[in-house]
Amino acid sequence: AEVGATAIVNVSGHSFDEYVQVIEALEDAPVDAYEVNISCPNVDAGGMTFGTDPDQAALVTSELRTRTKRPLIVKLTPNVTDITVIARAVADAGADAVSLINTLLGMAIDAKRRRPKLARVVGGLSGPAIKPVALRMVWEVHNAVDVPIIGMGGISNGEDAIEFMLAGATAVAVGAANFVDPLASLHVLEGMVAYCKENGVSQVSELIGALEV
C-alpha cells in the first residue's frame, strides 16, 4: 500500500471460524480485495476440502459476504468432477469473481529410498504441465457463470496469457514462472502488448471469451 500497489490478500482456513477471523483481522488494513482459497480441508467436516463440495463452498462464501463489502474473489480447486457446479455455487452465494485454477493434486516418489519426496506424501502440481487443464476449466466456467474470471495455471509468456483471455478470463495471474524468472510477470505483459499490436487489437478486453468454437 505504501508504494501504491493494489493488495489482494489470499484468505484460507480449516474451519468457517478461521476464514471469518482472517477477514475480520484484515478489515482495518489497506486491502483492496480478498482471494478466498477454498482448497483447504474443513477439519470440522472430517477433512473434506471446502472447494470440492458446492454446499460448503457456498457456505464459506456467503458467510464472508456478510462480513465485508470488499470484493470477494473465490479461488477454485481443479480437483473436482465438474468445476462449473462449484463456480455457480459461489457466484450465487455472493462471490464478485472467481480465480482458477489452484494446483492439481499430485505426488513424487524417491525410487531409491522407496519413500515419498513430499512430507505430506501428496502436494500441489503447478507450472506449464497444468495449463491445458486450466484453459479447459476457465472456458467451462466462462460458459457457466457471469462473474469475472482470473485465469491461471502455467502462464509463462504473453501468448499463454492471451489464450486464457480467449477462453474467457478477464484477467490473468502468473505464479510458478516467477520462480524461474522474477521478472516473468513483466515479460508476460510485454508479450501481451506485442500480440495486440501484431493482431490489430486496440483493447485487450476485446479478447475476453473471443474463442471461436
Low-confidence stretches: none
- The number of helical elements comes to 7
Query: What would you call the structural class?
Result: alpha/beta
Strand order of the largest sheet: 1-2-5-6-11-12
Proportion of strand residues = 15-25%
- Terminal CA distance reads 42 Å
- Oligomeric composition of the shown chains: single chain
> How is the main sheet built?
6 strands, parallel
* SSE succession: EHEEEHEHEEEEEHEHEHH
Shape: globular
State mean pLDDT (0 to 100 scale). 95
Rg from alpha-carbon coordinates: 18 Å
Helix content: 25-40%
Number of strands: 12
Structure commentary:
The protein is globular. The protein has a six-stranded parallel sheet with strand order 1-2-5-6-11-12. The protein has a two-stranded antiparallel ribbon with strand order 3-4. Strands 7-10 form a two-stranded antiparallel sheet. The protein has helices at residues 16-26, 54-65, 83-92, 131-142, 158-167, 177-180, 184-198; strands spanning 8-11, 33-37, 41-42, 48-49, 72-75, 97-100, 104-107, 109-110, 115-116, 122-125, 149-151, 171-172. By secondary structure, the protein is of the alpha/beta class. The longest helix has 15 residues, at 184-198.
Features:
18% strand; globular; alpha/beta; 7 helices; 213 residues
Brief summary of the model shown:
Helix content is 35%, strand content 18%. The chain has 213 residues and is α/β, with parallel strands linked by helices.
Task: Write the SSE topology.
Elements: E1 8-11, H1 16-26, E2 33-37, E3 41-42, E4 48-49, H2 54-65, E5 72-75, H3 83-92, E6 97-100, E7 104-107, E8 109-110, E9 115-116, E10 122-125, H4 131-142, E11 149-151, H5 158-167, E12 171-172, H6 177-180, H7 184-198
Parallel strand pairs: 1-2, 2-5, 5-6, 6-11, 11-12
Antiparallel strand pairs: 3-4, 7-10, 8-9
Helix pairs in contact: 1-2, 2-3, 4-5, 5-7
